[in-house]
Amino acid sequence: MSPEMPEPEGSPPIKDLPGGWAFVGIGSTIAGCVATGVALGLVVDGWLGVGPLCLLLGFLLGSTAAVATVVAQVRRFL
């Protein structure tokens, strides 16, 4: 058998796997989204004086944004 076998008709092309920098980008995206949400939550908490309510809301929104962004980044390789 030759090492370069032809692909069957109708199959999608094989995509290259991401390099190490892609994983660094994903990690920094997660950290940036969560940190931005927490920072904005702390600022709004200080401004409104409502305690950790906005901090928790900022964490949840930042986490949601991180998941949505990472899913979009990972779909490029699927």
TrEMBL record:
Membrane-crossing residue ranges in chain numbering: 21-44, 50-72
One matching Pfam family: ATPase_gene1
Keywords in alphabetical order: Membrane, Transmembrane, Transmembrane helix
InterPro entries: ATPase_put (IPR032820)
Name of this protein: Unannotated protein
